[in-house]
Amino acid sequence: MPVDAPPPRIRSDDPASFAASVLRDRHPAIVARVLADLPLPAAARDGLAGLLQDPTVTPLPRDAHDHEDWDRWGEPYFGQSMFEVPFLWAENYFYRRLLHATGYHEPGPWRGIDPFGPQKAADLPGEDELRAVQESGDALLHLPEDEQASALVAAALWGNRADLGFQLAHGLAQAQADLVADDTELLWKRLAGGGTVCVVADNAGRELLPDLVLIDFLLRAGRVRRVELHVKPAPYFVSDALTADVLAELRRFPADSAIGRRLWAALRAGTLELVTDPFYCAPLEFAQLPAGLAARFGAATLTILKGDLNYRRLVGDRSWAPETSFADVTGYFPGPVAALRTVKSDVVVGLAAGVEERLPASWRTSGAFAMVQVRG
Ligand SMILES: O=P(O)(O)OC[C@@]1(O)O[C@H](CO)[C@@H](O)[C@@H]1O
């Protein structure tokens, strides 16, 4: 059933809201960390300071390569405070301004330098971790199918909460208990049949690792023929994965690691393809997909969207009643879609009646709960 009267988009104008806390507290902390991590020149430092001093939404400077796009996207919001415009839009705008301040897109010595690079580098898994992952990955092949499914999905879902080895040994029961919606069985059924699966990545580092293990497993076990791994075209929301981050992680695998070698070979062979698109750093939701991405998702057996931000962009960053049907809200998506999401913001759909009442008050933002939702 189509959702014809969606609730309002979330804004940050209530000072007590999570959205307001992100703009008011998290953004200054992000800027402070970039300033501490990089010896940026004075103009860049001033640009970053200006971003925090004045919350007014203004057009991008005329030298920004994409200022015409942002003129169009920002037209309804110019002159308003970032706290008054939709939260998701304001966050996108913040990251775009931050990249302009550091000169990421502009010609010059700072072009292409990831302002979050030092933070991402610190989160790359170590050699021991990668060896443990290799062993766990091998062990998985000998498990009954339902255990393979729950282990791989739980690891991909919880990302940095625990490594795959830990999940297999101790963490699974707890991981499952903290799932507030669990379509794992349906997800696993869809991850078969030899077609193409699109994985829309979220964070690099320890969150990307289980994604890579899942992709390797699907290809190795012959459950799918091809995987597309969709990454961001530019630094975004601090830790989101770029092509460079995927390569850095693959290079981290020890030379004798079979997983690392298989994934490298899959990239060369095209059974694993890296995909990116400007859409991934635009202040848009998946309902506004460009034709190229829509065609890819339409042709895939399944698209898996990882993480909270992709979830917000999938269902719409709105104050939905939590029992609103996931299938209805995502009915527009061009093909079967799954969301694997640790709940880190206020947006929720697809909850069974009565579930929310049993959860702690802060459950939507604590990062302690997760959802696996599938529209097949
Ligand atoms: O997509 P991720 O990495 O799971 O989460 C990103 C995220 O925590 O950042 C926002 C605040 O900036 C949250 O609302 C949001 O969902």
Automatic annotation (TrEMBL):
<keyword id="KW-0378">Hydrolase</keyword>
<feature type="domain" description="Damage-control phosphatase ARMT1-like metal-binding">
    <location>
        <begin position="24"/>
        <end position="358"/>
    </location>
</feature>
<dbReference type="InterPro" id="IPR036075">
    <property type="entry name" value="ARMT-1-like_metal-bd_sf"/>
</dbReference>
<dbReference type="GO" id="GO:0006974">
    <property type="term" value="P:DNA damage response"/>
</dbReference>
<keyword id="KW-0479">Metal-binding</keyword>
<dbReference type="GO" id="GO:0016791">
    <property type="term" value="F:phosphatase activity"/>
</dbReference>
<dbReference type="Pfam" id="PF01937">
    <property type="entry name" value="ARMT1-like_dom"/>
</dbReference>
<dbReference type="InterPro" id="IPR002791">
    <property type="entry name" value="ARMT1-like_metal-bd"/>
</dbReference>
<keyword id="KW-0464">Manganese</keyword>
<comment type="similarity">
    <text>Belongs to the damage-control phosphatase family. Sugar phosphate phosphatase III subfamily.</text>
</comment>
<protein>
    <recommendedName>
        <fullName>Damage-control phosphatase ARMT1-like metal-binding domain-containing protein</fullName>
    </recommendedName>
</protein>
<dbReference type="InterPro" id="IPR039763">
    <property type="entry name" value="ARMT1"/>
</dbReference>
<dbReference type="GO" id="GO:0046872">
    <property type="term" value="F:metal ion binding"/>
</dbReference>
